[in-house]
Automatic annotation (TrEMBL):
It comes from the Bacteria. Belongs to the ABC transporter superfamily. Residues 6-235 form the ABC transporter domain. Keywords: ATP-binding, Nodulation, Nucleotide-binding, Transport. The keyword Nucleotide-binding applies. One of its GO terms (molecular function) is ATP binding. This is ABC transporter ATP-binding protein.
Amino acid sequence: MSDAAIEIRDLRKVYQGGKEALRGVSFDVPRGQIFGLLGPNGAGKSTLINILSGMVNKSGGTARVWGFDIDEHPRNAKASIGIVPQEILFDPFFTPAETLENQAGLYGVPKARRRTMELLRAVHLEDKAGAYARTLSGGMKRRLLVAKAMVHSPPILVLDEPTAGVDIQLRQQLWAYVRTLNEQGVTVVLTTHYLEEAEELCDRIAIINHGQLIANEPTRTLVNKAQEKAVEVTVDRDLTEAPAAACFEKIVLKSARTVEITYHKDKVNAGEVLGALTAAGLGIVDVSTKEADLEDVFLNLTNEAA
């Protein structure tokens, strides 16, 4: 059996009218990881997820979920994956407990093996088990969607923008549960617009833009690709204008005595930047650095691919 939870090869999707949503995307999602799938709006992320879930038919290529080809073994492939969609869709007249029971029934889970109350407890909805779904807050509905995706105990959980519109406390509860599932062996695929979330949670990240894969690397390797760094320097006297130097990519006067200098770390180092200031006759009082993050990498890569 492959070490990949999901294998995608040359996946293509052309919608009626000629719009290419996916243009030959290929990558693997390693088993046991939290895997980030990022990209701008309209990049093709949701199309890819909908193909894996069986909601959208692909135009070409292959996809395997937990070793099952989605065309040759669709039932096994669907049983191996739980999808938490972007849209919040529930029957408003079912309670959370009924929602999970019905979903378990659709997957053929025997009553003796259903985990309705266990799942509601895990997503902090045990006290809402008998309430109508329409009375739940947006955050509660999001968490119920996660529980609904797990009723058949799939080895893969796909979260499509799961924290959109969710407050910080509920977001933290949701991620705590996702981490627990991952520790129990569930492979997690996450799409999100909160890049700091992806940077903190994901072991590996793939970036899609205009239907094409433009990056697929371990998170730290990806973050280290950011070449721009910034230092904020406090000097010993008031400045009327920002000093200039060839090694500065950009310099901004933040206050009378503070400048923020951006430089390319592959061309110069922080010592050279500070040396340029002292060469200009300025004494350095304090220095703080700003490390590059995933947002910097994301913007650089998507701008290059635009």
